[in-house]
Design a protein that fits this description.
Blueprint lengths: L5 H4 L4 H10 L4 E6 L6 H11 L4 E6 L2 H9 L2
Parallel strand pairs: 1-2
Length: about 70
């Protein structure tokens, strides 16, 4: 794993995200989720997912999306 400053890992705008994706090694693996309380299961899942490719892109669900998920049947 390459050590990167935490602030450099967070992408908040589409242009930066697009550039990072274009510059990333392939294959690129994508996942998303709710990791507000990170536990061993999350870490194991992310490690297994990262092993599937050269670059792992993780999207975090927003608070409103989490609320919608919890209300779903």
């Amino acid at each position: 794993m390459i050590a990167v400053n935490s602030a450099e890992k967070i992408v908040l705008d589409w242009d930066t995200l697009e550039q990072r994706i274009n510059d990333s090694a392939r294959p690129l693996v994508f996942t998303n989720g709710v990791f507000d309380i990170l536990h061993r299961g999350h870490v194991a899942y992310l490690e297994e997912t990262a092993a599937l490719g050269a670059t792992l892109l993780i999207a975090l669900n927003s608070d409103p999306s989490v609320q919608r998920l919890r209300k779903a049947p």
